Amino acid sequence: MSSEPGSDTRSEQEREPSAETSPETSPELGAESTLCVVVDRADRIQISLNRPAVKNAINGQMIDELHALCAELEQNPRILILTGSNGVFASGADIAELRERRRDDALAGINSELFVRLAALPLPVIAAIDGWALGGGAELAYAADFRLGSTALRIGNPETSLGIAAAAGASWRLVELVGEPLAKEILLAGRILNAAEALAVRLVTEVHEPDALEAAAHALADRIAAQDPLALRYTKQLIHAPREAHPAVDNAAQAVLFESAQKFARMTAFLDRKKQ
Predict the structure, then answer these.
(1) Is residue 206 annotated as part of the catalytic site, yes or no?
(2) Which domain holds residue 218?
(3) Compositional bias (Basic and acidic residues) at which positions (predicted)?
């Protein structure tokens, strides 16, 4: 959903790719891409939404490129860090495109299918939200496993003011994340949360100054990367499994992990450290 996120023109702080860059497995993004690879390492990739002229509004091209990114991460799992640019995460869906969509477009779930796919990626997704995250931009953030915000964060879903519903995940993800009463304020009354409010209800788990946000996202990625990747993948699946699937799915996952080489290596290293 488009809104007027102000005229903040802060440039995004970029990091140099490490020596572990893997260009042969990175998504191919051309000069006209709506995404920008900021960091590309063996254990993670940081992607910036890059349509600064329209405050990173999500259009069909960005959806297609995010699908391509998901396809690559499904084949070669890594931690994904999503950021915005120029002090805006994503101002929402591109209204010029959205106005022309019809019944068949809605039934195709153009945005919702992407966000479901993003949420199901094998390894965790971190959304580092600086500035505005509205409508589809907020729903993109809701699909992440972790949300970190800057002090400039403003997040909400003003879709009903434009005659549509927040139908790309907010109607159920937001209820799960913050509870029904607050979700109704956001979805039905147009409430926009600031950073302090979002932190208070744990919609974001950390708040940092804008110039420290990316470093905080990478610090979180470092902690995630220290875990066993296979254990991470199974644990994420278990978190998202339906309640009625437990405990059978837990037992099945643990059965695989109990036989993994990493389980023996990590537990042996732990016991060896205790002997010292």
Answers:
(1) no
(2) 35-226
(3) 7-18
